[in-house]
C-alpha cells in the first residue's frame, strides 16, 4: 500500500477510534457526580472528600503523564509502541468505569471505593490517551499531514462527547430512564458505553498503519530509580508536588464550605453561590494569564516612585510560571470541579421540586448555563488579561500588598493607642 492510500485510510480509521474514548470520558467526568447525588445519601463531609479526590486526581496527572509517556516511548513490540497501550488502557478504563457505576456501597465505604476507582481511572485513561495522541507523529512525515490527523480526530472527539452529553441524560432521568430508576439506568448506560469504547478504538488498533522505523532502535530500559531521582532533583516537579498538597487542602476546604452552604440554602441563594464559584475561577484565570503577558518596565518605574504595590507586582511577574500554574490549574480546576458538583446539587433539588416532567430539559439547561458561563467568561477574561495585563497585575498586587502590610499597619495603630 503506497503512502497516499495509507494516509487516506488512516484519516478515517484514526479519528473513528476516539469517538468511544470521548464517550467514556464524558460519562465519567461529566456524570459521575450526578450519579452520586442521585443514587447515594452522603453527608457534606463525604461529598467534600469526593470533591477533594477529584481535584487531587487532576494534579496527580501532572506526575502520571510524563511517567506514562516515558514508558510508552521505550516500549518495543511487534505491534509497535502505541497499540499495546491503547488496548490495555481502553480495556482497563472500561472495567474501571463500569465498576464505578455498578456498586452498592454507601457512606465512607463508597468514598474509599471512589478514591481507588478515580486513581485507577486516571492511570488507565492516561495509558490510551497519551498513546492515541502520541501516534499522530507516526502517521505523517510532514506537519501539514499531522495537522490533518489532529484536526479530524478533534472533530470526531467532539462528536463522541456531544453524543454522550445528549443521550446519557435522556436515558438516566425521567420516564425514559432505563430500568425505571437512576441507579439501574446509569449502570446500564455505563455497560453500553464501556462496550462501545473498545469497539470504536478497534478502528485505530486494527485499521491504522503507523510508521515504525524507530522501532528498529533499541530503547534504554525503564528505570524507576532514575525517574524518582529526576522527580526529587527537579525543582519544577517538586513545585508540582507542593501544588498537589496545596490543592488537596484548598479543595477540601472550599468543597466543605460550599457543600454546607448549599445544604441549607434555598434555590436562589444556591444559584448565587454557584455563580460566585464560577466567577472565582474566571477571576483567577484572568490573573494567571495577565502575569504571563505583563511587562516589568512599568512596575520598575512605579518602584522608583515608591509605589507600594510595585514590589508585589514585580514578584508576580518574575514568578509568572508558578503564579499561572496556581491560578489557572489549581484554583481554576478546583472551581471547575466544585461548580460541577454545585450544579448537580441544584439540578437534583430542582428536579425534586419540578412537577412538569421536564427533567431532561432542566438538567441540560443547567449544565449548558454553567458551561457557557465558564467557557465564555474565561474567553472574555483572557482577552481582558492580554490587553490590560498591567492593570490586572497592579490590581492583584494591590490586594497582595494590602494583606502583606496589614500586620504592620495594625501594629502601628495599636502602638499609637
Write the layout of secondary structure elements.
Layout: H1 3-39, H2 44-73, H3 83-100, H4 107-134, H5 143-170, H6 182-207, H7 224-232, H8 235-263, H9 267-293, H10 297-304, H11 310-318, H12 320-353, H13 359-387, H14 389-416
Tally the helices.
14
Say how many strands there are. 0
Shape: globular
Q: What is the terminal separation in angstroms?
A: 89 Å
Catalogue the unreliable spans: none
C-alpha Rg (nearest Å) = 24 Å
Helix proportion of residues, in percent? over 70%
Q: What amount of the residues lies in strands?
A: under 5%
Task: Give the helix/strand class.
Answer: mainly alpha
What is the mean predicted local confidence, pLDDT? 79
Order of helices and strands: HHHHHHHHHHHHHH
Q: How is the main sheet built?
A: none
Amino acid at each position: 500500500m503506497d503512502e497516499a492510500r495509507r494516509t487516506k485510510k488512516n484519516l478515517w480509521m484514526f479519528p473513528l477510534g476516539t469517538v468511544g474514548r470521548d464517550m467514556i470520558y464524558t460519562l465519567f467526568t461529566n456524570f459521575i457526580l450526578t450519579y452520586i447525588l442521585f443514587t447515594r445519601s452522603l453527608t457534606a463531609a463525604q461529598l467534600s472528600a469526593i470533591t477533594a479526590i477529584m481535584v487531587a486526581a487532576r494534579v496527580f496527572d501532572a506526575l502520571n503523564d510524563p511517567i506514562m509517556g516515558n514508558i510508552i516511548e521505550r516500549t518495543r513490540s511487534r505491534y509497535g509502541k502505541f497499540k499495546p497501550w491503547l488496548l490495555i488502557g481502553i480495556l482497563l478504563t472500561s472495567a474501571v468505569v463500569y465498576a464505578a457505576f455498578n456498586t452498592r456501597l454507601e457512606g465512607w465505604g463508597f468514598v474509599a471505593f471512589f478514591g481507588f476507582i478515580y486513581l485507577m481511572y486516571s492511570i488507565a485513561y492516561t495509558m490510551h490517551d497519551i498513546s492515541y495522541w502520541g501516534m499522530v507523529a507516526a502517521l505523517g512525515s510532514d506537519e501539514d499531514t499531522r495537522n490533518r490527523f489532529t484536526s479530524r480526530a478533534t472533530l470526531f472527539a467532539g462528536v463522541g462527547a456531544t453524543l454522550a452529553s445528549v443521550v446519557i441524560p435522556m436515558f438516566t432521568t425521567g420516564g425514559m430512564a432505563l430500568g425505571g430508576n437512576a441507579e439501574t439506568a446509569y449502570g446500564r448506560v455505563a455497560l453500553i458505553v464501556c462496550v462501545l469504547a473498545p469497539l470504536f478504538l478497534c478502528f485505530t488498533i486494527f485499521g491504522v498503519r503507523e510508521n515504525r522505523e524507530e522501532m528498529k532502535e533499541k530503547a534504554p530500559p525503564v528505570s524507576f530509580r532514575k525517574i524518582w531521582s529526576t522527580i526529587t532533583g527537579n525543582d519544577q516537579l517538586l513545585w508540582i508536588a507542593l501544588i498537589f498538597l496545596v490543592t488537596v487542602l484548598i479543595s477540601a476546604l472550599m468543597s466543605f464550605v460550599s457543600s454546607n452552604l448549599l445544604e441549607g440554602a434555598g434555590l436562589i441563594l444556591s444559584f448565587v453561590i454557584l455563580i460566585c464559584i464560577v466567577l472565582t475561577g474566571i477571576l483567577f484565570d484572568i490573573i494567571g494569564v495577565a502575569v504571563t503577558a505583563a511587562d516589568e518596565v512599568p512596575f520598575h518605574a512605579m518602584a522608583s516612585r515608591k509605589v507600594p504595590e510595585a514590589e508585589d507586582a514585580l514578584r508576580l511577574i518574575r514568578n509568572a510560571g508558578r503564579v499561572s500554574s496556581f491560578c489557572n490549574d489549581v484554583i481554576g480546576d478546583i472551581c471547575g470541579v466544585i461548580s460541577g458538583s454545585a450544579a448537580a446539587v441544584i439540578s437534583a433539588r430542582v428536579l425534586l421540586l419540578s412537577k412538569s416532567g421536564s427533567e431532561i430539559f432542566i438538567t441540560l439547561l443547567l449544565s449548558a448555563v454553567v458551561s457557557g458561563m465558564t467557557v465564555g467568561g474565561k474567553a472574555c477574561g483572557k482577552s481582558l488579561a492580554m490587553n490590560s495585563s498591567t492593570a490586572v497585575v497592579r490590581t492583584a498586587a494591590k490586594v497582595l500588598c494590602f494583606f502583606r502590610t496589614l500586620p504592620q499597619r495594625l501594629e502601628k495603630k495599636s502602638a499609637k493607642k
